[in-house]
Amino acid sequence: ISPMKEVAGKSALLVNPESVSEIRDAVIVLIKNPKIKELLIKKGKEHIEKYSVESVANQYINLYRKMLQEK
User: Which of 22, 28, 43, 44 could link 15 by a cystine bridge, Cβ 3.0 to 4.6 Å?
Assistant: First the structure.
């Protein structure tokens, strides 16, 4: 689960992938609570921007600039 926390942020219900009961319970939460489902979808769309090509490229550019300034 731990790597998924960083990737998913607060845009997912995190469960143990080996626990059938946790997966089942999370699916039930989403089925019974469409507002939660919609909120997670919205947060997911916002969160994914961190991983766009443009965003990652800008992060690398800023890192390289910082490294060059420290020389």
Answer: 22
pLDDT digits (tens, 9 = 90+) for 50-60: 888 998 999 99
Task: Give the closest residue to 8 by CA, choosing from 55, 56, 44.
Answer: 44
| CB contact at 8 A, 46 and 11 | yes
Q: Could you tell me which residues come within 8 angstroms of residue 23 by beta carbon, excluding any fewer than 6 positions away?
A: 15, 17
Q: Report pLDDT digits (tens) over 23-65.
A: 999 999 999 999 999 999 999 999 888 888 998 999 999 999 9
Q: Distance between CA atoms of 63 and 33, rounded to whole angstroms?
A: 41
Question: Taking CA 38 as the corner, what is the angle to CA 3 and CA 5, rounded to the nearest 5 degrees?
Answer: 10
pTM: 0.66
Query: Counting runs of H as helices and runs of E as strands, what totals does the chain give?
Result: 4, 0
